[in-house]
Task: structure prediction
Amino acid sequence: MNVLLVLAALLLSAAQLGCGTAPDALPGPAGESEDIVMTAADFECLHGGVRVGRVTVWNKRGHLDEALAVAESDEPGTYPVGTVLQLVPQEAMVKRAPGYSPSTNDWEFFQLGTSADGTEIIDRGPSARGVFGACMGCHGQAPAEYDFTCGKTQSEPCGYDENQHPLFDWLVDNDARCPG
Ligand code: HEC
Result:
């Protein structure tokens, strides 16, 4: 990470806050703040991401190599800003800027609706809920040094159950948003 760039962005946004304006993101590549506020349209057919084991990985801020290094390693690791992880089309973990949500390691959780028409955001945020309850209710049981991911450590407190793998595969294979 370019520390100077982040510092400059912080100073600039602080200056602008002082003037009474609070931009969502600073314009231009040089001033772009390192964060990702996902819209429904930013979520894609899972077949377009890189699949590592059962998990599909993207990075929307140009840090894909760093994200894949974490996903492919058995060692503990923290995903870079802009990472999108999906086990199934209907759920996503998105890595926001440092400080967004310290208690979730800055993960924003999403419950999504998917159809041939595209993606709909049903719930989002650090305390978002899916069909099986609050995402963090399970992911918070995973080792923090593995960035609250459950699959890599086959975390039993998360409710890891390999009998569910065929279901996950089926949901990915049948992602309604994928062409053809
Ligand atoms: C009942 C517990 C439980 C709940 C609730 C839950 N998850 Fe998970 N999640 C798991 C387990 C267990 C795995 C690992 C599955 C595997 O690898 O077989 C997992 C895997 C994932 C992964 C892949 C990365 C990883 O952790 O291995 C993502 C992304 C994910 N879940 C997102 C979510 C989101 C978003 C929500 C809420 C909408 C959610 N999960 C709710 C238990 C849960």
Observations:
- Residues 36-173 form one domain.
- Residues 1-31 have pLDDT under 50 and may be disordered.
- The beta strands are 50-52, 55-59, 83-86, 91-95, 107-115, 118-125, 129-130, 133-134.
- The first strand starts at residue 50 and ends at 52.
